[in-house]
Amino acid sequence: MAKPTPGLRKRGETWHIEKTIGGQRIFESTGETELDAAERYLARRIEQIRRITIYGERINYTFDQAAARYIEEEHKKSLDRDITTLTAIMPYIGALELSRIHSGSLDGFIKDRRRAGISAGTLTRDIAVVRRVLTLAARLWRDEQGRAWLDTVPLLPVPKGEKRKPRPISWSGQQAILKALPGYLSEMVLFALNTGMRDQEICGLRWDAECKVQGRDASVFIIEEDAAKNGHERIVPLNAVARAIVDSRRGKAGEFVFGYEGGKLGRMGGKAWSKGRKAVNLQGVRIHDLRHTFGMRLRAAGVSFEDRQDLLGHHAGRITTHYSKVEIANLIACVELLCEEKKKPELTLIRCA
Fold it and tell me: Which of 243, 258, 342, 344 is 20 to 30 A (C-alpha) from 126?
């Protein structure tokens, strides 16, 4: 075997670069298993760095490099979902230089996602993640010469399609799906139907967020700003059903009310949910539809629009820990209306042909 060029070292089956080039220490994989190919890769990197340091040429960053920096530096609550999007889009644009990305670059991704049944709303969120990465590359990130990673952000397509309509479940559908789900998930679903909380709010619900209501045999949960989707603190009043679920969980888990296998459940809408809803012919129902069901049942029970908005957390800043006991008592009374399904009207969605 020929002696490798200085600066190349084999780790396992792959050749890696460990070399100082133009005063810059480089540690990276060539991605090559053959020495000849690895040496060609090293030669290209040496020439690239030489052009940058001597002639001031711009570094041509690729989208996968930009995505890696985004994941490393971003700290928002929905980062896991962004990572899922970026992982899905890598086969389409990951290897492209940022300057070569344009609206047509995403055509294959959009086409395949639509073929897989992904909604227009989800696609819009996917494209928004790509747009965010490119915006940071153009406006914030700089190379060693102080130049932006990208000159301008390209216009990206906004997928068009019919907006998915809410699909609330009936009382009979609720009973059926609760029986079809494993115990831990059945409790979480029933809790969602009685509180209107979002998937991640329930998965991340901590015991230290529970607060007793003075003068009442009741408690509420405080959803802090960093845990709420809209970034505003709100309270979640509990009705008898929700209180019973919480009481049954006491002593079973650690810091999380709905702890799973000693930690936090990633999301409610996993394989167990998909299997359960399929078993009772509710394939079109998603976890977020539990929140829609909560809101529609409140309306059917005669709860006012403002109270519904407060209970769903749509009124930023209206509900805080300083809310009066009378007003909190009113909200508890509102959610108590959902406890006896036999007295409540069924929900019907009217769709135009």
Answer: 258
